[in-house]
Amino acid sequence: MSQSPSLDPSHRLRVVDLSEADLLARLFPRLPVPEGVLLGPGDDAAILAAPDGRTVISIDTLVEDHDFRLERPNGHRTTGYDVGWKCAAQNLSDINAMGGRATSLVVSLTLPPTTPVGWVEAFADGLTAAIRELGAAGCGVVGGDLGAGAQLVVTAAVTGTLDGREAVLRSGAKAGHTVAVTGTPGRAAAGLALLEDKRLLEDGRPSRDFGAVGEELVAAQLRPRPPLALGPAAAVAGASAMLDISDGLIRDAGRIATASGVGLDLDPEALRQYAAPLEEAAALLGVDAMEWVLGGGEDHGLLATFPQGALLPDGFTAVGSVVPGEPLVTLASQAAALRGWDHFAH
Amino acid sequence: MSQSPSLDPSHRLRVVDLSEADLLARLFPRLPVPEGVLLGPGDDAAILAAPDGRTVISIDTLVEDHDFRLERPNGHRTTGYDVGWKCAAQNLSDINAMGGRATSLVVSLTLPPTTPVGWVEAFADGLTAAIRELGAAGCGVVGGDLGAGAQLVVTAAVTGTLDGREAVLRSGAKAGHTVAVTGTPGRAAAGLALLEDKRLLEDGRPSRDFGAVGEELVAAQLRPRPPLALGPAAAVAGASAMLDISDGLIRDAGRIATASGVGLDLDPEALRQYAAPLEEAAALLGVDAMEWVLGGGEDHGLLATFPQGALLPDGFTAVGSVVPGEPLVTLASQAAALRGWDHFAH
């Protein structure tokens, strides 16, 4: 059933043209070699080292037409590279949010039989690039699963180490602590709005109306850059609570509030700096940039709380404070409407 | 958007009627509480104990219409309970095949928005039942991900511990070693053939033609029972190579042959005992029962090799021997045609 690769370049080959073993043989050389692993891919399971006697673990899935679109009505194409990047980035971010360092990924790919082999190879390349460029040195793919399905579904489980430190949970915020963020809240949401807008050019790149700023916003959506050095830095600095902003600042702040049994009061003035670089795109689309800042997820920056007087690590910006009382999120002491992403009810 | 559960019982509620938080709140009480876990569900990641400094990990996916069918043309319905059971069983089996003991699962569910909430609850119940009934005491669900998609896709990553022992890899078989199996090779494949047969009754149960034997075969396919005590027992007994029979005896034997650089010669006479209980179904369907024994996967029994003179643990049966030479599988020294499951090329 296989065809000669020399007659049929990989961008035309479909996964149905290859055996599972042949497809794996094409993918493995593209994936980062895991370090500090006791047994890598090729057996029924892999074996990870856990020098401090603990393993951190999380799982995340991306689904075609829900978490990404291969092709949008305006012609923009999300590449395999983009999906591989995002798959790695959002998983690495979950370990970062605990104050840990990612050590391995296991990856399951559900592929329509007509999926071009080149798409899957690009997926592997994007995954590898994210691991390297985001600074997850030593983290590699130690196992996986391949199967057929009606749409592309990409799941990765990620493991990490705390390197002997305590984890930073969502539940440790106390009244009087400082609320701080890293990264670029709202940027990925603005990028998504641009991607969904009809004014994108046919080739899927932002039109001149959006310019270089538009490209940056789109990149934040397609290839988020979680600040992997800052999770451990926050842990070392004594962060009392932390998570990654994946579903929107207000919604994620609410999770710390609930887990910690405190209120989080955010300062709209401090947050306005994040809206400023989005104003141009917001004006073009006729929306309020602050809505992206407050409700947009997927940037995978960190939201953390620090005890009074703690020195915030470089990269964190104070944007509010923890207050006693109901576990609610307020903006300058006013109730904040719940915004952000819910997978089913929206 | 939610409706009152009192007006709308869960078998009519669809996942789109609930928020993600509400759906999780319905699932968690049904899932087994993990033991020996340092941090369970509810944060960005969970934290597992790894007392011997190692964590075993694997990942497996089940896809609607590829790995299971909600409804077959003959009327048989695969329940959420069945899919939950199988999801747990096949993942637990991967740890068993290393000689380890499963400690946790992280589970990602991709659900069409119209999926009945009752289906997802049954999934959780089946997962829990498999963990308990198969003897994976202490193993629990420590995290997960929920999302929407066009078809049901269920992925679990499983972790395990080796309890201080060495893992049993695929690569340790040496000429002269004994080849042994556990479980019921061919039974799940026979069950699948019955499930796909038109002679099933309308309500999806095997007709009287198939009788009690038919029900057993169908159960082997829908709710496989990997022998979780036997992986560690084989490790203690000195097994030199091991894997779980998931894609077919010949195909999986070939994996040990390739990894170990040896031949595996299987004894057809010894294997015939596994065909005997399948003969009645085979005769009804007009097929050769030995084809199910040699090519059928999904029973999740173990295939292992043991050094000469090693006492096989109770539950293992000698079915051949490791021979020098090319890494091939033979049947009474005759070349065996490759059988079994390949996800794309079949």
From TrEMBL, chains A, B:
Residues 174-277 form the PurM-like C-terminal domain. Substrate binds at D67, E298, W341. Mg(2+) 5 binds at D247. The keyword Metal-binding applies. Keywords: ATP-binding, Kinase, Magnesium, Metal-binding, Nucleotide-binding, Thiamine biosynthesis, Transferase. PANTHER family: THIAMINE-MONOPHOSPHATE KINASE (PTHR30270:SF0). Reaction mechanism of ThiL seems to utilize a direct, inline transfer of the gamma-phosphate of ATP to TMP rather than a phosphorylated enzyme intermediate. NCBIfam families: thiL (TIGR01379). This is Thiamine-monophosphate kinase.
